[in-house]
Amino acid sequence: MAVVYEFVWRMLHALLHLQRTLLSWNWRLWRRAMTAVLVPTVFGFQNHPHNNKKLIPTGGKKSCCRVLWKSDGKSLEKLPLHIGLLIAEEETRYTDIANLVVWCMAVGISYVSVYDNQGIFRRNSSRLMDEILKQQQELLGLDSLKYSVEFLNNSNDKPEQQVLSCQATVKVLSPDDGKTGIVTAAQKFCQLVEQQQKRSSDLDVNMLDSMLRGTKGMPDPDLVMKFGTVDSTLGFLPWHIRLTEIM
Amino acid sequence: MPKHVAFIMDGNRRYARKLHVERQQGHTQGFDKLAETLRWCLNLEIREVTVYAFSIENFKRAKDEVDGLMELARQKFSRLLDEQEDLEKHGVCIRVLGDLTLLPLDIQKLIAQAVLATKHHNKCFLNVCFAYTSRHEITNAVKEAAWGVEQGLIKPSDVSEFLLDECLYTNNSPDPDLLIRTSGEVRLSDFLLWQTTYSCLVFQSILWPEYSFWNLCEAILQYQLNHQALQKARDQHAEARVLQQLEADRCCAADLLQQTGLGKPVDPQLRQEALQKYTAEREERVHSFLTALQEKRDRFFTDLNKGFIASAKA
């Protein structure tokens, strides 16, 4: 009997592996389709027939796309304030990520975080920033002047542009911002205790929360969109994802 | 096969609404389903299970619902104590994780009894998260580290990811391999946020009281598909951690040398010896701190138990 179970189990594995391989062959096409479908479904769009096409930029449709994005954003009852993009893929595609960030901004999301568990985006954050600005120009054209993007690094929080009619904040994260961030905050608190400025019993959840939030005060992510085949948070901001929807 | 599975048993109230029965019955059915699931896990050789029974946020629910849940806990823990022989036979170790001081005293005492009675069992482990939220757990871990500093057992620079791991309520358990949440919600809801960073997350839309063996198999299958990628990510993180610790030790040892070296340039041999000495001393400090912490935790349960026996005799 056990032999039968094992055989069935192995068959299931084989079928699922086959499915995954087929998907990865059509990877580029699949991914474009997925992001085109996923982004609007996640935001709860109504079923517009031209929805799927509009998010793949084509020359003549650009101006009406932008208008559609903005009006679609306004027609939604509730937008997430902060979206996290968790990239768990083997290849890093800066253009695709930049596209996603610009789409989020266009729909009206105020905060976007980009994360990968090897810290690749963090190390190459200037390249990502350039790509985002380039895509912003390409996708939003004339309207891009209305959108100002503030890039946050840990070292400096000086806003790069003035506050105009729409502002979005983009933050690039790595595992250093997760558990390591909590360890650093813990060390700081212990130093205060050592210097007798605080007692160990003084610490509560709110105090630790404000220590972890720092001076920038970004809200917790409402939604994390995971890209890749791995079903895990891979270290994305463990403290902040308490109530985050993970898709 | 996963060695440690965590469950967020969501959907009791929705189940009760679906069947047009009282909420309390939904919770009772949920408990029965838990017992059944534990048996399946044992059959599948999954030796450790952690469940999210009651969140600190749940105290905010209606008073009669909270009272009902407390009463259910009272009955079930009492039942557990009656079945001690069975627990011993199967070697079940029960741990209850959370801020137990928030619970009624009589439940705290029942819990203490159950935990102490099964402490030395080591065939399988059931961790019940009761009066628990992950943020409270992490905050508590930092507080314990700060207590260690206050007592002069460790220095602030000794605080590391490893140390905080050991200060959590789950210090005696490995991280969960698989986390399953039922009822279709796709949130972690403040459950094991620190411990599930490299766990496979499976969200299933079935309501908890309707959970079946096939649902469990489905989840395990998904775990197996993700296993390689997650193991790779975990190993990478472990490597990075070791390097970080080495770097931190090197800085501290260099600082110490500078303080005592009166500004003279230091040769590499001396630097290496200082690093080794510093690392050994740090590990010694951390070891004695963790021993003291474990004693403090054990004392919490034994004190409760003494109180229990005293009040039982009175």
Structure description:
The complex is a heterodimer of chains A (247) and B (314). By secondary structure, chain A is α/β, with parallel strands linked by helices. Helices cover 47% and strands 13% of the residues of chain A. Chain B has helices spanning 12-18, 23-43, 63-82, 84-90, 105-117, 134-150, 161-167, 213-261, 268-313; strands at residues 4-8, 48-55, 92-97, 124-132, 178-181, 200-203. A six-stranded parallel sheet of chain B has the order 3-4-2-1-5-6, with helices on both faces. The chains are: A alpha/beta (247), B alpha/beta (314). Chains A and B meet through α1, α8, α9 and β6 of A and α6, β6 and α8 of B.
Tell me the span between the first and last alpha carbons of chain B.
49 Å
> C-alpha Rg of chain B, in Å?
23 Å
Largest interface by residue count?
A: A-B, 50 and 49 residues
Tell me, rounded to a whole number, the average pLDDT of chain B. 90
Number of strands of chain A: 6
Instruction: Name the overall outline of chain B.
Output: globular
Residues in helices of chain B, as a percent range: 55-70%
Number of strands of chain B: 6
Structural class of chain A: alpha/beta
The best one-word shape of chain A is globular
Q: Count of DSSP helices of chain B? A: 9
Distance between the termini of chain A: 38 Å
How would you write the strand order of the largest sheet of chain A?
Answer: 3-4-2-1-5-6
User: What low-confidence regions of chain A span 5 or more consecutive residues with pLDDT below 50?
Assistant: 40-64, 154-165
Strand content of chain A: 5-15%
**Helix share, percent of chain A:** 40-55%
SS-derived structural category of chain B:
alpha/beta
Strand content of chain B: 5-15%
Biggest beta-sheet profile of chain B? 6 strands, parallel
Contiguous low-pLDDT stretches of chain B (5 residues minimum) are: none
Main location (chain A): endoplasmic reticulum
Organism (chain A): Polyodon spathula
Pathway (chain A): Protein modification; protein glycosylation
Keywords (chain A): Endoplasmic reticulum, Magnesium, Membrane, Transferase, Transmembrane, Transmembrane helix
